[in-house]
């Protein structure tokens, strides 16, 4: 799946070129992987814009960048054997050649392969470092997370619960809200499509918000900023409500509440913590194994040609938990 042109606003089918090419042959020190699970990530929208960011934009004609789990089907690499499952940035394609750099071995005893793209992969690590390091979480904090029923949000809320916090999730629709409170242990959930978020935050976080973990930006960020506790930490993880904007990003109109509440607002990129992935992955795997973190995944079956449609699901809120495409 190659990028055919730069999208304007929402990504359209015409922005992609699904091409058929010969399967590459691995050279010395390389292996060939066949894609089993493809990760769909909101950040992909940003990678399509031609503007400076934390990663270079995907070039026109380039295979779309993506994390995936592949099965090694041919190998000239001493450390990777045929039949193994590995995860890495192999792109939106059926086959990929790799020299093994940045590749993580999937341990089926630890978790399902798809979980290496979700709770045990980039979204789980984002939740872990965003909440514990950037959010400087403390026991007893009141934590509010937006995009709460998504890949990152479900893990943020559950980590906060196991650390002894009060957790309020903001998500779209009654089913997602019920999942948060009835299955994932959140103390309260706010359906931003049906409720007045400001009023609901007032009701569910009467003492104010100590950590606001923001996945969506826009009006919900504005609402959360009105309810900060003293010395609150606002973690800027993402702003999916703004990614398809054709105009400027909507900034918080009430940022002075940071001043009044002596609060801190800090952005981060999970890659900043790459050296500490092994320790975080071990801890996340332990929590998953003990049932303290329930893994929520939304698996769509299809082929690489279903990638554009699957990507669109994220922006319409059609996924619950980590969205992955199982490539048959
Ligand atoms: P999710 O699984 O949360 O999927 C996206 C969700 O966003 C949808 O299900 C939808 O849920 C919600 N959404 C979509 N449009 C809107 C909107 N206009 N307003 C409010 N909510 C909306 O995705 P991820 O967990 O993978 O990513 C969550 C956030 O984390 C993203 O902003 C992403 O960019 C960011 N991120 C940041 C990283 C970093 O290093 N800083 C790393 C990884 C992710 P609903 O039905 O509730 O609206």
UniProtKB/TrEMBL annotation:
Keywords: Oxidoreductase
Highest taxon, organism lineage: Bacteria
Signal peptide span: none
GO molecular function, one term: oxidoreductase activity, acting on the CH-CH group of donors, NAD or NADP as acceptor
Protein name: NADP-dependent oxidoreductase
Pfam families tied to this protein: ADH_N_2 (PF16884), ADH_zinc_N (PF00107)
Enoyl reductase (ER) domain segment(s): 9-325
Keyword set includes Oxidoreductase: yes
UniProt keyword Ribosomal protein, yes or no: no
């Amino acid at each position: 799946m190659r990028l055919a042109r730069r999208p304007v606003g929402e990504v359209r089918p015409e922005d992609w070129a699904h091409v058929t090419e010969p399967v590459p042959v691995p050279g010395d020190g390389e292996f060939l992987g066949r894609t089993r699970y493809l990760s769909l990530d909101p950040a992909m929208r940003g990678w399509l814009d031609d503007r400076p960011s934390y990663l270079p934009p995907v070039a026109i004609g380039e295979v779309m960048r993506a994390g995936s789990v592949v099965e090694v089907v041919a190998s000239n690499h001493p450390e990777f054997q045929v039949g193994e499952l590995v995860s890495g940035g192999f792109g939106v394609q059926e086959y990929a050649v790799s020299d093994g750099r940045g590749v993580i071995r999937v341990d089926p005893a630890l978790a399902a392969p798809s979980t290496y793209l979700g709770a045990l992969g980039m979204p789980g690590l984002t939740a872990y470092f965003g909440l514990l390091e950037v959010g400087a979480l403390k026991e007893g904090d009141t934590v509010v997370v937006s995009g709460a029923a998504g890949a990152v949000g479900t893990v943020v809320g559950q980590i906060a619960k196991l650390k002894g916090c009060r957790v309020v999730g903001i998500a779209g629709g009654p089913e997602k809200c019920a999942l948060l409170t009835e299955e994932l242990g959140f103390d309260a959930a706010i359906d931003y499509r049906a409720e007045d978020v400001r009023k609901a935050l007032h009701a569910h976080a009467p003492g104010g918000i100590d950590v606001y973990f923001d996945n969506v930006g826009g009006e919900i960020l504005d609402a959360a900023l009105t309810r900060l506790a003293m010395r609150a930490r606002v973690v800027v993880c993402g702003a999916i409500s703004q990614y398809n904007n054709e105009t400027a990003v909507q900034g918080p109109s009430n940022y002075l509440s940071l001043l009044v509440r002596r609060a801190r607002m800090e952005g981060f990129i999970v890659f900043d913590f790459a050296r500490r992935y092994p320790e975080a992955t071990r801890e996340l795997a332990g929590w998953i194994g003990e049932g303290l973190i329930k893994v929520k995944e939304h698996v769509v079956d299809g082929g690489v040609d279903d990638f554009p449609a699957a990507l669109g699901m994220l922006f319409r809120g059609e996924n619950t938990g980590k969205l992955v495409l199982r490539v048959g």
